[in-house]
Amino acid sequence: MYPQVEPYAQGMLDVGDGQRIHWEASGNPSGKPACVFHGGPGSGSSPRWREDFDPDHWNLVLWDQRGAGRSTPSAADPATDMKHNTTQHLIDDAEKLREHLGIDRWLLIGGSWGSTLILAYAIQHPDRVSEIIIPAVTTSRPEEHAWITRGLGLFYPDYFDAFVEGVPEEDRDGNLALAYNKLLESPDPATREKAAWDWSKWDLSTITGGDNDFTGTRYENPETRYRLARTVSHYWGNEAFLEPDHIFDNLHRLKGIPGVLIHGRNDFGGPLRTAWEVAKRWPDAELVILNDAGHVVTEGNSMDRAITAAVEKFR
């Protein structure tokens, strides 16, 4: 809807633990602040978000979470220790970035994993959040991880059998994300490469609704495959480092924060039920259900149009 303007400022913020996160700000430096929490985890920020925000009105902040995008050290490097990469670390990083930029309150926007991180941040820092927009709602409960790593086998039995066969036989009945993460942390490069390939084949199919062809996608790049597989399995294997119902038990802390939840009825990877339950516990949020949408936002689709409308609502 708007031109993809170049950032007026960017930098690397030292957040401790040997970690430096990349950030950028675009639009109007004196405008209304908004911040994108990207998905993945591990995918990195996308400049596409600039097209949803009027650069004359908004001060838009994008940042790469630990290990992702241009932040350092990269999770694509097997030598990078992931012990300092947890949900609480990311919440703290976002708050340090807000303080660094001198922002009092900001609108938060992001979907999928970005949804979990936004909600966890807002629960901890509700006084720093003006509004929230979430396309593709997730809360990273254990049952959500179990659904996406095992339950979806109901719809994709062929892909699921290949996914399960990618881990040792003794691990096939347990936490598949954790089993893959062990392989992705292997000292053997061939083991890591195969695990990243097998994980990504399953991951892509769940996102697209069954298409797991890497051609023309970010999964074509072996380094990207490994970074994503390693980071996602690290978080899912550890249940996002959250208590099982942490977000649901604390949604009352969002009282007074207006929100728009946007969810596709055909989102296989993140069934509508989660968005429905969040909306019931957060009265200040509007739930927009899209009958023709899944998990992915593409240019001009109904999810994209709903995001644009939500941003305009909160001008």
From TrEMBL:
Annotated active site: 112 (nucleophile), 267, 295 (proton donor)
Major localization listed first in the record, in broad terms: cytoplasm
Domain AB hydrolase-1: 35-297
GO cellular component, one term: cytoplasm
UniProt protein name: Proline iminopeptidase
Keywords on record: Aminopeptidase, Cytoplasm, Hydrolase, Protease
EC number: 3.4.11.5
PANTHER family xref list: PROLINE IMINOPEPTIDASE
Keyword Iron-sulfur applies: no
Species for this entry: Lentzea albida
